[in-house]
Amino acid sequence: MKATIERSTLLRCLSHVQSVVERRNTIPILSNVLIEAAAGGSLRIMATDLDIQVVENLNAVSVDTPGAITVSAHLLFDIARKLPEGSQVSLDAADNRMVVKAGRSRFQLPTLPRDDFPVIAEGELPTSFEIPAATLAQMIDRTRFAISTEETRYYLNGIFLHVSDEELKAAATDGHRLARFTIKRPDGAEGMPDVIVPRKCVAELRKLLEEALDTNVLIDLSASKIRFTLGGENGVVLTSKLIDGTFPDYTRVIPTGNDKLLRVDPRTFFEGVDRVATIATEKTRAVKMALEPDRVTLSVTSPDNGTAAEEVPAEYASEGFEIGFNANYLKDILGQIEGDSVEMHLADAGAPTLIRQDEKSPALYVLMPMRV
């Protein structure tokens, strides 16, 4: 195989694919990317960790000898990053070696044969629909902070996608908080199976979306696999296995009868929580909210660091009471609210609280209280 490619093109592609490759691998070939050069002057670069696979097509300056080879992903990425800007990179593979040349630099890297490189078998992907990339990015941003990191509850280690009536919903929960984002059901999504997209796939997809926000993303899926195609012909294709488990019926924890309504400016509230939480320790992450007409008093008491309190103006007309929340969880949710007002629907100190911008907002959050 012999091909020449612009450094900027190679670098951009490698930055997409190399992050899928795990740094530590028991199977040597999984540390490599597969590079295929076709006679028409195009290159195809692919990486996998056996659960996720990323493939990108790009145009080469020239392809002298078509062929395919695998070479260390992180090594090639580091070399491409350090080569001079504007240079053309020559990739020449023969006899278990790849020679990388650019300007006066020359590297010789070990290679492994392409036949040993594993490819995820997609099988049939019967459900197919398109979503604007910006909408998909928003779905991820508004929910992924609530994904559980507990490996024992593996079925919570991702974003749950499902359709109901005329809507497509994305939800994530770690048992302490729940985030859900709803959009109108795209054409083609009716009858799709409920799926859980793993955390790593979500992270890789979000990075890829950043460069394609003004395009549409084609999503193909079955009950066990999902494929995202970004940027059309010369785009990136991300394929991932889905989490094989049952997501709990989260709708049961969304409160419907919370009758105490608190309205507050999310920015002011976030900053207030952040300030009083400065003295909180790992044991006392709880911030106490004392609700009174027209204000909320935030306070934290720490046996080691003392106490802190701050008053935040608010709209509140029900009877006063006190409730405690994990300060970080509360900040995570407030950080998602873009408007100048957030609604908190409360019941009592022991019941889950519903948080949203307003009733028309596509995003909805539920937060469990803490004892304080």
Automatic annotation (TrEMBL):
Entry's Gene Ontology BP terms: DNA strand elongation involved in DNA replication
The organism's place on the tree of life at top rank: Bacteria
SUPFAM superfamilies cross-referenced by the UniProt entry: DNA clamp
Keyword annotations of the record: Cytoplasm, DNA replication, DNA-binding, DNA-directed DNA polymerase, Nucleotidyltransferase, Transferase
DNA polymerase III beta sliding clamp C-terminal domain sequence ranges: 252-371
UniProt keyword Cell division present: no
Subcellular location: Cytoplasm
GO cellular component: cytoplasm; DNA polymerase III complex
Domain annotation DNA polymerase III beta sliding clamp central: ranges: 130-249
Ranges where the DNA polymerase III beta sliding clamp N-terminal domain occurs: 1-120
Entry's Gene Ontology molecular function annotations: 3'-5' exonuclease activity; DNA binding; DNA-directed DNA polymerase activity
Subunit structure: Forms a ring-shaped head-to-tail homodimer around DNA.
Its job: Confers DNA tethering and processivity to DNA polymerases and other proteins. Acts as a clamp, forming a ring around DNA (a reaction catalyzed by the clamp-loading complex) which diffuses in an ATP-independent manner freely and bidirectionally along dsDNA. Initially characterized for its ability to contact the catalytic subunit of DNA polymerase III (Pol III), a complex, multichain enzyme responsible for most of the replicative synthesis in bacteria; Pol III exhibits 3'-5' exonuclease proofreading activity.
Record family assignment: Belongs to the beta sliding clamp family.
Protein name, as recorded: Beta sliding clamp
Species of origin: Novosphingobium mathurense
